[in-house]
Write a structure and sequence with these properties.
Radius of gyration: 23 Å
Structural class: mainly beta
Number of strands: 31
Strand order of the largest sheet: 3-12-13-14-15
Keywords: Membrane, Transmembrane, Transmembrane helix
Organism: Nocardiopsis composta
CATH superfamily of the largest domain: YVTN repeat-like/Quinoprotein amine dehydrogenase
CATH topology of the largest domain: Methylamine Dehydrogenase, Chain H
Protein name: Protein kinase domain-containing protein
Shape: globular
Distance between the termini: 55 Å
Largest sheet: 5 strands, mixed
CATH architecture of the largest domain: 7 Propeller
């Protein structure tokens, strides 16, 4: 029978290191996860599969980590066996994370790799790129040709939700500061989203309320807060009191999304049925208390297959909805319709966002593509884009996206770069990821949250790009922020702090002016 011999360096395994110091393993989790992913990618490129992964089968060397357990169980692996390796990678990362749980920037990627449907898991090569790691050194595939390179951007622990910036012409119209120095916002009629009586009020706030993302309603008086294990809660941001609990534990943590315009509809991604199941998009009519499952499960008793998982949802002018699917394709729904009017042939999509009433931009496999939602035609592709997050500049035909170590402003009409902004110190971070890219409603500033590994610790960095001057206008010493929401009329900025709390910041200085709630106690 076939056999092979391999030298084993004299080093410790991850299992041995977990016994002596689990904290040190967790601190190095991102580079360790990348090393194992690269090893799997090399095996798969050679036509093999590994099989179960355990801490005892990963050897720590001076250069990182290598697979040191049993040799590949299958020399001629099929797609299902390779997909099982990817799921085993997710299980290994979970085991290494321990009781504290998988870190934020890896959490979403682990969920994708452990998807119950093997066909929806990324390949090991794509996993390497999602982690931002260098590609694996592989032997030529059978026939002497190397596998074709496919580009995918880091998921950064989050699912993208997008709002049609072209429909949000709520320009910053700030009056002079009051005597006390607090920013004043433009006057507006009462916010219809304050009337969310159709949804139950919160039954008391938990002690460990850990926020993930925030978003203001179009009127600016309601703040939606997405939190781990608590779904979405709506807050009266002036009174600082919760007014409704919209989604529960089935909610997938992400930045919430209000539909643009004068209505009050909130879009969210949720698990179908029990937590951990497939992902669907749900539209909440807040005043009516109604919820519409955009791509729900088939009716009981039918043989219809489960619909594909939704990775991103964008809501455009007039209530049109685009759902980016992890299995490929982006169906576009007219308001209130149960079936899509058209399905864009986008391939794998992690971000879908309306440019205007007729165009949708999507991110997938290292590029941003603009689509005509009437004809389904691809109008323009921007590449390379190294992260799935991008933002539209209100009132323009420009988009801001990430290209490795810089943010780029790109004009879609001229098909050219108009400006760029460096991610300062990007080269000092190992396994870099982008956690947030948020445009202010006036189209003047871009908030960036990114980070990576620094001496074994995951570090965050924030920058605010002033697109008129090209400068970083975030004051030094500003505490690290995970997510922000600019107020539509120039009021205080809502921000998720690094400890999971939510604060309000001065929109000019980014100094804290109030606290909605603190992060959970350590």
């Amino acid at each position: 029978m076939p056999w092979a011999a391999a030298a084993r360096p004299t080093r410790t395994t991850l299992a041995e290191q977990l016994e002596t110091g689990p904290g040190a393993v967790r601190d190095r989790l991102a580079p360790l996860a990348a090393d194992v992913a690269r090893a799997l990618a090399a095996l798969h490129a050679a036509g093999a599969a590994h099989g179960p992964l355990t801490p005892a089968g990963v050897l720590c060397t001076e250069d990182g980590a290598v697979l040191a357990g049993p040799l590949p169980a299958t020399a001629d692996a099929d797609a299902d066996q390779r997909a099982q390796d990817v799921c085993a990678w997710a299980e290994l990362v979970g085991a290494l994370a321990g009781a504290q749980g998988v870190p934020l920037h890896l959490r979403r990627l682990v969920q994708v790799c452990a998807d119950p449907d093997p066909s929806l898991r990324p390949s090991a090569a794509d996993l390497v790129r999602m982690l931002g790691a260098p590609p694996a050194e592989t032997a030529p595939a059978r026939g002497g040709r190397r596998p074709a390179r496919r580009l995918l951007a880091p998921l950064a622990g989050a699912v993208a939700l997008a709002v049609a910036a072209a429909a949000v012409f709520l320009l910053r119209d700030r009056a002079e500061p009051a005597a006390g120095g607090a920013p004043q916002e433009a006057a507006a009629p009462p916010d219809a989203c304050l009337d969310a009586a159709g949804h139950p009020p919160p039954a008391g706030m938990p002690d460990a309320f850990e926020a993930y993302g925030v978003a203001f309603s179009p009127g600016g008086d309601v703040l939606a807060v997405s939190a781990y294990r608590h779904g979405i809660t709506l807050w009266d941001r002036r009174k600082k009191t919760p007014i409704a609990h919209v989604a529960g534990e089935e909610h997938i943590p992400q930045t919430p999304l209000f539909a643009p315009g004068g209505g009050c509809t909130l879009a969210a991604l949720e698990h179908r049925g029990a937590a951990g199941g497939g992902r669907t998009a749900v539209l909440y009519d807040l005043p009516a208390g109604e919820a519409t499952d955009l791509l729900g499960p088939p009716e009981e008793g039918t043989l219809a297959p489960d619909p594909p998982d939704v990775e991103s949802v964008g809501v455009g002018p007039g209530g049109r909805v685009a759902a980016g699917l992890g299995g490929g394709g982006t169906p576009v729904f007219e308001p209130g319709a149960a079936e899509p009017a058209i399905e864009l042939e986008t391939g794998l999509v992690f971000h879908a966002e309306f440019l205007d009433a007729e165009r949708v931009a999507t991110f997938g496999r290292g590029s941003i593509t603009v689509w005509d939602t009437g004809t389904g035609e691809s109008l323009h592709t921007v590449r390379p884009a190294s992260d799935f997050l991008f933002a539209l500049v209100p009132g323009t035909d420009d988009v801001v996206y990430i290209d490795r170590d810089r943010a780029v402003r790109w004009n879609l009409a001229e098909r050219s770069e108009t400006a760029s902004f460096p991610l300062e110190g990007h080269g000092d971070y190992g396994d870099p990821f982008v956690a947030g890219l948020v445009m202010d409603p006036a189209g003047e500033r871009v908030f960036l949250s990114w980070g990576g590994d620094v001496d074994g610790d995951v570090r965050l960095k924030n920058q605010v790009w002033d697109m008129a001057t090209g400068e970083d206008v975030l004051p030094e010493g500003t505490p690290h922020l995970l997510d922000v929401a600019f107020h539509p009329r120039g009021g205080p900025v809502a921000a998720v702090t690094e400890d999971g709390g939510v604060s309000f910041l001065d929109p000019d200085t980014f100094e804290a002016v109030d606290v909605l709630f603190p992060g959970p106690p350590e």
